[in-house]
Amino acid sequence: MAHVxxxxxxxxxxxxxxxxxxxxxxxxxxxxxxxxxxxxxxPQLQTLLSTRQLVYLSTSSAWGVMEGAIRNLVQKKVLNCMxxxxxxxxxDVSKKCGKPAEALQVEWGSPIRxxxxxxxxxxxxxxxxxxxHNETSxxxxxxxxxxxxxxxxxxxxxxxxxxxxxxxxxxxxxxELGIDVLLAGTQKAFALPPGTAVFVASPAALAKAATAxxxxxxxxxxxxxxxxxxxxxxxxxxIGHIYALSSKLxxxxxEGLENRYARHAKTNQMVxxxxxxxxxxxxxxxxxxxxxxxxxxxxxxxxxxxxDVAKLQKLVKDRGFLIDxxxxxxxxxxxxxxxxxxxxxxxxxxxxxxxxxxxKVL
Length: 362
Ligand SMILES: *Cc1c(COP(=O)(O)O)cnc(C)c1O
What we know:
Elements: E1 5-6, H1 16-22, H2 32-48, E2 55-58, H3 62-73, E3 78-82, H4 85-96, E4 101-105, H5 114-121, E5 128-132, E6 134-135, E7 140-141, H6 144-148, E8 158-162, H7 174-177, E9 181-185, E10 197-201, H8 203-210, H9 221-228, H10 239-255, H11 257-277, E11 281-282, E12 293-297, H12 309-318, E13 321-322, E14 334-338, H13 345-361
Parallel strand pairs: 1-13, 3-4, 3-5, 5-8, 8-9
Antiparallel strand pairs: 2-10, 6-7, 9-10, 11-12, 12-14
Helix pairs in contact: 1-10, 2-10, 11-13
Bound molecules: pyridoxal-5'-phosphate.
């Protein structure tokens, strides 16, 4: 069967070069070869995240680390900032870990604002807050810099940030932000196969984790730190992923991180322009649209035109591209097109042509 190119917001298209690296001959995870591999990528990861902390590799999808952060860092009560399907689910996860948790819920399509978090944290009830930087279900990017600035006012609160669909596409300066955990899965903007997560924790987070009695085993942050100091992971990792990540980090550095960020902004604008040309509006509140995907309003809120999303998807698929038909309660009322990963203006052009053609038939 012919491959349909992925323009869904994860997993995204994986390059031949990346797959080749993924298929490198297997090595032992306690041997020098593995340590050399991890030691080679560690400074690259630190450059990517502008941090002096060690960056950890978890063989799990992002949710593993998202749950792990709750288990390691919540002792009193966690504030789960909720603005879409992924961020909403973090509240359930907190509760399933047996932690007292409270929602800071905003309407889907809106960002999380620093003032709202400030009001909640001012109660003194919370020792942790979760935030999804780029809420992939709604295409909304929340103002991370402003939110992270609250850490100075609430130094004892753990700031846990999911950057699953924004990491590598926008600058994320971990040490400068001053937050406590920053994490991402590899199948989104990294453009690697799914199955590994990358994360970093602050010294304060590590100190707090060390006092958490029931932090579990697989996602024990203290174990990640101890092992990373030896260029190892706590358990046998997906070594193929780490080869692939190494290859990818070389690509990032060859391209230049600033160029990579600019490329994402440009390819994202191509989709925005397409939507505008056809009379659609965007689902996110103005000024808060993601640069890695576009969530098109298709009747979820007033304004703009609407189309039969299933039909649009089929027409585009017949032309070789997979787009997403909306997520959760806004399925069909929105649709999503990803530009994250390796996409360039040249590689996006055929998708735009296919979308234009589909609109002629609809
Ligand atoms: C995809 C995604 C997740 C979930 O990732 P898994 O790899 O399925 O665990 C979490 N948060 C955001 C923002 C995502 O886009």
